[in-house]
TrEMBL record:
InterPro entries: ABM_dom, AI-2_Isomerase_LsrG, Dimeric_a/b-barrel. Residues 5-93 form the ABM domain. PANTHER family: ABM DOMAIN-CONTAINING PROTEIN, QUINOL MONOOXYGENASE YGIN-RELATED. This is ABM domain-containing protein. Transmembrane segments: none annotated. It comes from Sphingobium fuliginis (strain ATCC 27551). It comes from the Bacteria.
C-alpha cells in the first residue's frame, strides 16, 4: 500500500471576503505544486455555493506534508486564512485507492 497522504480542505469565505480568499488560494497553487513530494494541488469552486472552495492536495508521504506546512507560502496562508474563511481540513490515508 502507498504512503501517500491526501488533504481535502473546505473553505467558505466570510462575508465580503470571497475575492481576498480567492486571491490567497490562487497564490498557493504554483508554489505548492512545485514542492518536492507534491503530487496534486487543485483548487475547486462549489457550483452551488461560489464562495466555497475546496483544495484537493496529494503528497508522497508525511515528510512532504511537513515540508509543505513549513513553507513560507503556507505560513502566509495560515496568517490570513482565519480572517478570510471558515475552514475544515481533512488529512487522509489511503484505504482503497486505485
Amino acid at each position: 500500500m502507498t504512503s501517500h497522504i491526501k488533504i481535502v480542505a473546505v473553505l467558505t469565505a466570510r462575508t465580503g471576503k470571497a475575492d481576498a480568499l480567492r486571491h490567497l488560494l490562487d497564490g498557493m497553487i504554483a508554489p505548492s505544486r512545485s514542492e518536492p513530494g507534491n503530487l496534486r494541488y487543485d483548487l475547486w469552486t462549489d457550483q452551488a455555493e461560489p464562495d466555497r472552495f475546496v483544495l484537493d492536495e496529494l503528497y508522497e508521504d508525511a515528510d512532504a506534508v511537513a515540508a509543505h506546512r513549513a513553507s513560507p507560502h503556507f505560513q502566509t496562508y495560515l496568517a490570513a486564512i482565519n480572517d478570510l474563511a471558515e475552514r475544515s481540513a481533512f488529512t487522509l490515508a489511503p484505504a482503497a485507492v486505485a
